[in-house]
Write a structure and sequence with these properties.
- The protein is α/β, with parallel strands linked by helices.
- About 40% of the residues lie in helices and about 20% in strands.
- It has a single domain, classed as Rossmann fold, CATH 3.40.50.
- It contains nine helices and seven strands; from the N terminus they run H-H-E-H-E-H-E-E-H-E-H-H-E-H-H-E.
- It has a seven-stranded mixed sheet with strand order 3-2-1-4-5-7-6.
- Helix 2 packs parallel to helix 9.
């Protein structure tokens, strides 16, 4: 495959946002089981949050060859299990390999042909397997920050519903971080920053995300600046 270079510069910047990562990972972990494929694993900062342990295979797929060494080293330091790190994309992975869970954490929005990507992912799931996506929400919030880190789009519930692969049943389409939605709107209308500062991220992570955790329950997942999509593969005789 051609040498790929990730254009974003936010991986290090967002690595310390512990409250936010803890929040969304708690929402996703109950749906993770069996053999796992994590697409676009980056530098591995999200993997330990999702891994509850076990002996099943966990494959971290990352197309940027410069990130693979860091990914491998970071995961080795967790001591949780032996992760398999693969440099490539879903299309370069052996099509015969099947998984029980395939995860995209802030990755799908970086993929131009997202429908084809999810269809390919679904074909690699065993029957009963799950496809999990976390992405930024609402195209009307698209800012210079999104463009700077290589986003093609942001998602809403109708968009993800239309992307549902055949033989996949939607289990969850829900928004997170309702209080953060106000901050994103302020950036859109007033600041229009291409990258948040570390101080802004600390304020959001320590002050705003805890408020969102309460508000999100009140709003029943109908508001937020991020979205979780979870699909389950139905029986079709092919798994």
């Amino acid at each position: 495959m051609p040498d790929f270079r990730y254009v974003g510069s936010e991986l290090e910047l967002f690595a310390p946002v512990h409250t936010w990562k803890s929040y969304w990972s708690r929402r996703i972990r109950p749906f993770i089981r069996g053999e796992i494929l994590e697409v676009g694993a980056g530098i591995g900062s999200n993997t330990p949050l999702l891994d509850l342990g076990g002996n099943e295979r966990w494959v971290c797929l990352e197309p940027d060859s410069q990130l693979i060494a860091r990914l491998t080293e970071n995961l080795k330091q967790t001591g949780r299990r032996t992760y398999e790190t693969v440099c490539g994309t879903l299309q370069s992975l052996d099509a015969s390999r099947k998984f029980d869970t395939i995860i995209y954490i802030d990755v799908l929005e970086h993929i131009e042909h997202d429908r084809e990507e999810l269809e390919s992912a679904a074909s690699r799931l065993r029957v009963g397997g799950r496809l999990i996506v976390l992405s930024p929400a609402h195209q009307w919030l698209f800012t210079p920050f999104d463009a700077a880190i290589g986003h093609f789009r942001r998602y809403n519930r109708p968009m993800l519903r239309k992307l549902s692969p055949a033989n996949m049943r939607i289990e969850q389409l829900t928004y997170l971080d309702s209080a953060g939605l106000a901050l994103s709107l302020a950036n859109l209308l007033l600041l229009r920053q291409s990258m948040p500062t570390r101080a802004q991220l600390r304020f959001w992570d320590r002050c705003v995300v805890p408020i969102s955790q309460g508000l999100d329950r009140c709003f029943c997942g109908l508001l937020g600046k991020s979205i979780i999509g979870i699909w389950k593969r139905e029986g079709d005789g092919l798994g």
